From TrEMBL:
Residues 210-272, 281-342, 351-411 form the MucBP domain. The keyword Membrane applies. This is MucBP domain-containing protein. Keywords: Membrane, Repeat, Transmembrane, Transmembrane helix. The chain crosses the membrane at residues 483-502. It comes from Weissella coleopterorum.
Length: 506
């Protein structure tokens, strides 16, 4: 007898009523269940599907894939018939989840599926749904809503497990000690000449729901491949934490070990990321010229940590702008955040420009330069009539500060040649005109001589005074200058003496 075993609705339907635990009912399907178990009990379900000596291209993978596609067809048609999905929604899910797999499995089957689900043709969907769904609900005794909940993905996983199971583990009701293994176990077999729909229906209590093991960081992000544990209800399972590079195990959420049940379970291993020293973040505080005006600050941390910087209230300055990210994350690269400020204006002390002679006497109007601290100033020498610029004391140009500054321009007084007699040439007295005086020539001559002497003395006195006044103006500054001036004075005195003697002789 050839046994046809199909599982396309097996583990996806809840509430199916196929209680074949009654051996009398089994006998209506199998002529001799005991003989069946003795002869075929150690075979896998997959082995029973292949006739002895028959070559077949079918594998567990291909069979489970085919059953998964059948489950997909029933799901889409049932949902379309009950208005659960539109033709557009069916096409979208078919294209994204199943189309490629069907074509990889069987291109001809893929083309047929495309005509039904990829065309968005509601007429084809309606015809197929009206034809197939009532037939399956009648034969299996299931409602349309149940077919809507079929999971093609779950069908494939559970079918592979089922096909690799031994027959005795599925249909045997008790173990060697008489303990009941399962409440409902079904293998429905039919010959190919019955015309019935061949299927196998395994009770949902046989296979447990999966246990999923996840490995995540503290933010729930997966940091290692998850694992799925499968088994029968009541079977033991165990999970293990992993050594994950760059992370340290923190805690586990869920039961690390336990038993499979009819409900899915998740075990989550949580890890913390190991700290890695990051490059520093420097916060600078500068004026508009880039000059530091407050102490810089350095932020340190690990890669991925958050950082934040703050602007400061700096006396005498107003915040203008920030360059760089005020807050962010530390990385393996150095970062700089620059806070730029403008300097507040502060009234500076004045700079006074004075114009004086060599005795410190003001000879021109002083000038006052005003401004803010840090501003530049400049002063100028003046052309002053009767004086020649000699030197300057102080900084001609500079920067205004909080301290008063004085710049002194010193001038030497020029000589007045119109009011002075050149001491190197003695003054010549006027020659009297005696041609008109004939009565007292001698007396007249004595009188004239006396006048001449008086005039000469006056001239000499004027010359000496001028020389002395000039000498005082040009006072010597060094010993050498003194010697030179002394020589000049001696020469002048000698010249004057010569003039006096000459005048007396005359």
């Amino acid at each position: 007898m050839m046994y046809y075993i199909e599982q396309f609705v097996r583990n996806s339907i809840i509430g199916a009523d196929f209680d074949l635990s009654d051996k009398e009912y089994l006998l209506t399907i199998l002529d001799d269940p005991q003989s069946f178990l003795e002869n075929d009990g150690n075979k896998t379900v997959y082995d029973l599907m292949i006739s002895e000596g028959e070559d077949s291209d079918e594998t567990v993978e291909s069979l489970s894939s085919k059953n998964s596609f059948q489950a997909m067809i029933l799901k889409f048609l049932a949902n379309f018939k009950t208005h659960g999905m539109s033709a557009e929604e069916i096409k979208k899910e078919y294209d994204s989840k199943y189309k490629q797999d069907i074509h990889d499995y069987d291109s001809e089957l893929g083309d047929q599926a495309d005509q039904i689900f990829d065309s968005e043709d509601e007429g084809i969907l309606k015809m197929m749904a009206d034809s197939m769904i009532p037939q399956y609900t009648r034969v299996l005794g299931l409602s349309e809503e149940m077919f809507c909940n079929i999971s093609p993905e779950e069908t494939k996983i559970k079918d592979e497990y089922f096909l690799n199971s031994k027959v005795k583990d599925i249909v045997n009701f008790v173990d060697d000690n008489g303990n009941k293994l399962i409440d409902v176990s079904v293998i429905v077999a039919s010959t190919d000449d019955t015309g019935a729909i061949p299927f196998a229906f395994v009770d949902n209590d046989l296979l447990g729901a999966d246990v999923t093991v996840k490995y995540v960081d503290e933010n729930g992000k997966e940091i290692a491949q998850s694992e799925v544990k499968s088994g029968n209800i009541g079977d033991k399972y165990t999970t293990e934490k992993k050594d994950i590079k760059g992370y340290t195990f923190k805690e586990v959420k869920g039961s690390e070990s336990g038993e499979f049940t009819d409900k899915s379970q998740t075990v989550t291993y949580v890890y913390t990321k190991n700290p890695i020293k990051a490059a520093d973040v420097k916060a600078e505080y500068v004026d508009e010229n880039g000059k530091e005006i407050a102490q810089s600050e350095v932020k340190s941390g690990n890669i991925g940590d958050k950082y934040t910087t703050e602007k400061k209230d700096i006396k005498g300055y107003t915040f203008k702008e920030v360059r760089g990210s005020e807050s962010g994350e530390f990385t393996d690269k150095s970062q700089t955040v620059t806070y730029v400020y403008t300097k507040n204006p502060i009234k500076a002390a004045d700079v006074k420009a004075e114009y004086v002679d060599e005795n410190g006497k003001e000879i021109a109007q002083s000038e006052v330069k005003s401004g803010n601290i840090g501003d530049k100033y400049t002063t100028e020498k003046k052309d002053i009539k009767g004086y020649t610029f000699k030197k300057v004391k102080g900084s001609i140009t500079g920067t205004l500060s909080d301290k008063a500054q004085t710049v002194t321009y010193i001038y030497a007084k020029n000589d007045d040649s119109e009011n002075q007699t050149d001491p190197s040439e003695p003054a010549k007295p006027d020659t009297p005109d005696n041609s008109g005086d004939t009565d007292n020539p001698v007396n007249n001559n004595d009188s004239n001589n006396a006048d001449k002497t008086t005039d000469s003395n006056s001239t000499i006195k004027n010359v000496v005074n001028n020389v002395v006044e000039g000498a005082q103006t040009l006072l010597p500054k060094t010993a050498a200058d003194k010697l030179t001036l002394t020589g000049v004075l001696i020469a002048v005195v000698v010249s004057l003496a010569g003039i006096i003697i000459l005048n007396k002789r005359k």
